[in-house]
Design a protein that fits this description.
The chain is built from ten helices and no strands. With 265 residues, it is mainly alpha-helical. The chain has one domain.
């Protein structure tokens, strides 16, 4: 019987986007059908997961801002979101592979997240094709994976800094992107982003669930620990705007939300 951890690693290291997506879907099915064991495997640090040669990865400051008044500008925006979703597939797989001390329910959650992120990526790629573009046609930055790699040392830090911080940022900015795309008549793109926003609330909730679980296991105060990890590892801290209602739905406590609101002033 194959190990779920080894299969997660193999999917993580797939280079071609189609192969990665299909490997994720098959992995989730095999796990749910109890065809995989929890036999531990050797864990290694992954500086770069499997990815195609394109897009070119550049520093965030080097990415061009393109207006939404052209097909190219709208395609560029959706490409940047597709790149985030591609990386989100990898971070979900890495969570399964790397943190083998976690219970089976952790695997259930993150394989489901990986599958939904792969589906999001496919939706965005189809939308890009409608503009005459494909994934890889625009440069991108690697911030999400870099933070994933930097939190290899502790599952608690991973849950705090990736799903509850970087991915939660999508909850904050997606409504404004939807508004702007709707204003230029991109109704189908808005519908795609609506699916993403709906599901990402659930993904952030998974991060919150396991962050809270780990804090209880370690006897840590949830708010103090989250704030400490942000202050220690996130340069510049959290920046507004914050989608308070979506974050509440994703499991942020009222204490955390009140703190975020003070950062908006």
């Amino acid at each position: 019987m194959d190990s779920v951890y080894q299969r997660a690693y193999e999917a993580l290291m797939h280079v071609q986007v189609e192969q990665k997506a299909q490997a994720v879907f098959a992995l989730l099915e095999d796990w749910r059908e109890q065809r995989l064991s929890m036999e531990p495997t050797q864990v290694v640090s992954i500086v770069q997961p499997g990815r195609p040669d394109r897009p070119e990865l550049v520093a965030l400051k080097l990415l061009k801002a393109r207006g939404l008044g052209s097909h190219e500008g709208r395609a560029s925006l959706l490409h940047s979101i597709a790149h985030i979703e591609f990386n989100a597939v990898n971070l979900a797989l890495d969570a399964v592979y790397r943190f083998q001390q976690m219970p089976a329910e952790f695997i259930d959650d993150w394989l489901r997240v990986a599958s939904e992120e792969a589906y999001h990526f496919q939706l965005l790629r189809e939308q890009l094709a409608g503009y005459g573009y494909d994934y890889g046609d625009f440069p991108a930055h690697n911030g999400l994976w870099e933070t994933t790699h930097e939190t290899d040392f502790d599952v608690l830090a991973r849950m705090a800094l990736v799903p509850r911080t970087l991915e939660a940022r999508g909850l904050d900015v997606t409504p404004d992107m939807m508004k702007k795309l709707r204003a230029v008549g991109e109704i189908r793109a808005v519908a795609v982003l609506h699916i993403l926003l709906r599901d990402e609330v659930g993904h952030v909730a998974v991060g919150t669930k396991w962050f809270n679980w780990l804090c209880v296991q370690r006897g840590l105060d949830k708010f103090d620990t989250f704030k400490m990890l942000i202050d220690t590892h996130l340069k510049g801290g959290l920046k507004p705007p914050f989608n308070i209602e979506a974050r509440r739905e994703a499991g942020f406590s009222e204490v955390e939300l009140a703190w975020l609101m003070t950062l908006s002033n």
